[in-house]
Amino acid sequence: MSMRFKQTSPSQQSSQSLPNSKISDTISISSTTSAFSTGPDRHGFYGGSQFTDKPKVPLSKAQVLAREKKWLHMLSNWSEYMSKNYKKIRERCRKGIPNSVRPKAWFYLSGGQSLLESHPNVYQDLLEQQGDPQIIEEIKRDQHRQFPMHEMFLDEDRPGQKELFNLLKAYSILNPQTGYCQAQAPIAAFLLMHLPAEQAFWAFVSISDKYLKDYFTPGMEMLQRDAKLFMALLKRTSPQAHRHLIKAKVEPLMFMTDWFLCAMTRTLKWDTLLRVWDCFLCEGIKVIFKVSLVIVGATLNSHKVRKSNKELCDVLSLLKTPKDEIIEEEFIMQNIMRLNITVQDFIVEHKRIEMQIRKQQAQNLM
Fold first, then answer.
1. Cβ-count burial of 338 within 10 angstroms (0-12 exposed, 13-18 middle, 19+ buried)?
2. Secondary structure element (H or E) that encloses residue 270, with its range
3. How many other C-beta atoms can be found within 10 angstroms of the C-beta atom of residue 46?
4. Closest Cα to residue 343, out of 295, 263, 289?
5. Running DSSP on this structure, what letter comes out for residue 19?
6. Domain 13-47+105-211 maps to which CATH number in 2.40.30.10, 1.10.10.60, 1.10.8.270, 3.40.50.970?
7. C-alpha dist (Å) from residue 294 to 253, 303, 312, 323
8. Do the Cβ atoms of 95 and 21 come closer than 8 Å?
9. CATH of domain 221-365
10. 345-365 burial, b for 16+ CB within 10 Å, e for fewer?
11. How far does CA 171 lie from the centroid of its chain?
12. Rg for the chain (alpha carbons), in Å?
């Protein structure tokens, strides 16, 4: 399992067979809403926590064209770059993928393109099937809750809600032992904002099977192990924040479940989320770890904050609604790059936790 943290893209690990993972029901999905704008922002939001009326400082036209040219060259020679020059892909993902090529880059990075090539017409075949009636009803109840202030999902007549229903239904048929879980919906909706429906489906399949593998098994054992790993890494990177969580009796799953299961889609500002996903699709789950470590460390780095927020509920409130400046694009990106933690740290701590779990399991059998 330490392969999850190696310096390779999860798309390099994509198999040509259909995925086989299990997902059980988890958290409820809802969106914070605010005043309705007369027009959408540059990301398509009319309101809500993701709405922004602030223009982004653009790169120069020459910079944009240069980056687009580099990405188009890489995408035209994708297999060669992935096998021989992955570090260059990672470097360019960390700089930020140009908006014009981001959809195609995400499709390739995720491994969705490989799956679609291997399984043509499967998505259409799945759409023609009826599906489990109970799961269908669950999807229908949830589909309107995903980014309801975005132009694609404003009402059930918009293409977004219809495509979201189709994608989630198709996935539940593809993986009947997985079925449907509420935490899948924001990821699926997020992908549909950037990719055509069939491409979004296969990117979603790959993300569920590779990036978030085993997170949704009964008991969420992998997520529980990663919660232990998160605390071990936090102790390395932000010992004061780690001690404060222990003193306040805050368990990591109390705040990180939503961050990890939904891959930050319900947590970060939109510009930040796009940049984080550029890296997440290239480097895997360790990016979500790093973002989480930065959020917790930055939130609890001040003695004044720790002193005035000693109770469990106060600490959770801080972490579940991080300050805007903490989840701002440049702050997050700069700090995850500066984070004093290596791939080897992930692997060492992961192995140590696995040994602890095996030891505990052996003791339980005695």
1. exposed
2. helix 270-283
3. 19
4. 289
5. P
6. 1.10.8.270
7. 16, 17, 20, 12
8. no
9. 1.10.472.80
10. bbbebbeebeeeeeeeeeeee
11. 18
12. 20
Report how far residue 142's alpha carbon sits from residue 140's, in angstroms, rounded to the nearest whole number: 5
* pTM of this structure: 0.90
Q: How many residues does the chain have?
A: 366
Other CB atoms within 10 A of residue 86 CB: 16
What separation in angstroms does the CA of 208 have from each of 23, 142, 143?
Answer: 9, 19, 18
Tens digits of pLDDT across the chain (366 residues): 556 776 566 666 544 455 443 333 333 333 444 455 678 989 989 988 888 878 787 788 999 999 999 999 999 999 999 999 999 999 999 999 999 999 999 999 999 999 999 999 999 999 999 999 999 999 999 999 999 989 999 888 888 999 999 999 999 999 988 789 899 999 999 999 999 999 999 999 999 989 998 887 767 888 999 999 999 999 999 999 999 999 999 999 999 999 999 999 999 999 999 999 999 999 999 999 999 999 999 999 999 999 999 999 999 999 999 999 999 999 999 999 999 899 999 999 999 999 998 888 888 887
Q: Which amino acid is at 293?
A: L
Tokens of 65: 């064209």
Question: What are the angstrom distances between the C-alpha of 228 and each of 255, 322, 349?
Answer: 13, 22, 9
User: Which conformational region is residue 336 in: left (phi greater than 0), alpha (psi within -120 to 50 degrees), or beta?
Assistant: alpha
CA distances for 288 relative to 81, 93, 151, 217, 365, angstroms: 24, 15, 27, 19, 34
Task: Specify whether the CB–CB gap between 27 and 257 falls below 8 A.
Answer: yes
CB atoms within 10 A of CB 230: 23
DSSP symbol at 307: H
Domain boundaries, the chain: 13-47+105-211, 221-365
Q: CB under 8 Å, gap of 24 or more: what pairs does 309-314 form?
A: 309/248, 310/247, 310/248, 311/248, 312/248, 312/249, 312/250, 314/248
